[in-house]
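Lab notebook: predicted structure, single chain.

Context: the supervisor wants predicted structures on file for every construct in the current expression panel, including those that have not yet been purified. This is the next one on the list. No modifications to the sequence; it matches the entry in the shared construct table.
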Amino acid sequence: MKHRGRGVACGWYGIARTAAMDRAAVWVELDDGGTVKIATGVTEIGEGILTGLCQIAAQEMGVRPEDIVLGDNDTARVPEAAHAGATRMTYMIGNAVAIGCREAFGKFRDAMGAYWGVTPGSIHAFAGEVWVEGSPTKRMTMARAVHVLKHQRGIVIVGSGLFTSQHTGLNPDTGESTPWQSYVFGAQIAEVEVDDDTGEVQVLGVWAAHDVGRVVNPQQVEGQIEGGVVMGVGHALMEDYIQVDGQTTTPGFAKYILPTALDVPQITSILIDEPDPKTPLGVKGIGEPAITPTAPAIINAIYDAVGVRITRLPATPERVMEALRHKRATQGKRSERV
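Prediction complete. Output recorded below exactly as produced.
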């Protein structure tokens, strides 16, 4: 017989390096044709950071995302961005890009204000167009503005950005510290169906709500959450790395089972768009935090469905059946005593 249950779990995750100073830096240059060069040692590992950085730079510089050129990531030639991990990429590099672009755009405003004879604050730019607020005639493309400044006035617009995530070490007397500057919080609900004849567990749906700070690209954030949930399903129900005498007995995917497309439940992502007050850009991260609540939510849902608490992962059919047999045996002994 199949039984349905729901479970909830919450989680939090510190962003960037643990109890260690984290920093990232970039160079920014407004170049010919109205393009913007961003030089940083960032490395793309599939999470979409390059797209996010282009969006951030485009918003800050008043150009289109396709006008952003991300430079060579060889740290022998460009500023250090540090490693791709710890849910730090958008948080660290994104803030560095924002700081560098704001410095460059501030210089651009000053130069264009002097050219047009207006206050810098009246200069605006968006999608490659530059104009003076309230003026019907003082308007030109960013490409033309760069040409005017660079080739007629000898002004090259450059900027640099350094973002540092602060922390405090452990107090030797109290154990107190601030190991991370910012945290991501989240909660997930899982609905499962458990077959009490076979022990098989099917995850029907997961609802995932996460505080992700200011959202740069909603589709990418949802993709990160969905990927984390799928990993969490594997962690909860399938992935079992077994060793005997120091040797693995699950050396390949024939025995080390991963979720396939048929195992992916309906995932509903809920983005809590609350800018982080401790950073200039207000972003956070979601890469690793998304996986944190998934397995406990599924385990709680199994308990809600059939009343057994699985205390060792993964919750394979064999382990679920073992827990059900123990439950039935315990109930039987209680009935005999009554």
